[in-house]
Amino acid sequence: LSFTFMADILFSALLTLSVLLFALSLERDSVLLAVLGTILALAAILSRQLGLCVPIGYLVVRMLQPGDWRRKYVLALVPFILCAATLTLFNGWLRQTGRIPVTYYAQLEEMAVLLQSHLKFILRISYNLVEFILYLGLFSLPMLALTARPAVVGKTPSWVLRAPFLVAAAATLFAIICRSEEHTSELQSHH
């Protein structure tokens, strides 16, 4: 199931909540929030390996904060080490039990092919970035709308309020163009 689109919503929810908890942990200097963020990051990593980016980001931001270096290093390293170790153990378990899905390394193999052509590589990176922004924006927009403060929203110019929808529309158009270019080049390479 984790290699289908069915896991996208679960992964996005877990990742977003993990980021929120890590951000609150940084803001409030809370160990409990860091632990909860780590638990959700672990769940996200077991759905998509990309979830490891959150503990890495937390590590970098926590290391840049002023304060007691021993506490800072422990709080920064423990979530990353736990998440990286979990992913490593999970991959080892898949390999040892013969449960590695056929498409598990497909994206790595695709990346090796893309590295041979600079144009294809740039198009793929830009497409993936736009797709990520689109998914994250469309997923987060309802939560942002529900948590908007009326005092802040009332002082905001109207074009700023429409900006997320314009960005989402532009990202969608860009993603469609990139996808059609990729599809056209794949068809031409097969003929």
Please explain how this structure is put together.
It is a single chain. The radius of gyration is 20 Å and the shape is globular. Helix 1 runs antiparallel to helix 2, helix 1 crosses helix 6 and helix 2 runs parallel beside helix 4. It has 191 residues and is mostly helical. It is built from eight helices and no strands.
| Structure annotation, total helices | 8
Alpha-carbon distance between the two ends: 33 Å
- Major beta sheet summary: none
Query: Helix amount, in percent?
Result: over 70%
**Order of secondary-structure elements:** HHHHHHHH
Shape: globular
According to DSSP, the number of beta strands is 0
Mean pLDDT: 79
Low-pLDDT residue spans: none
- The radius of gyration is 20 Å
How big a fraction of the residues is strand? under 5%
Q: How does the helix and strand content classify structurally?
A: mainly alpha
Record the SSE blueprint.
Blueprint: H1 8-28, H2 31-47, H3 53-64, H4 69-96, H5 106-114, H6 118-147, H7 150-155, H8 158-190
Keywords:
191 residues, mainly alpha, 8 helices, 82% helix, 0% strand
Brief synopsis:
The chain is mostly helical and 191 residues long.
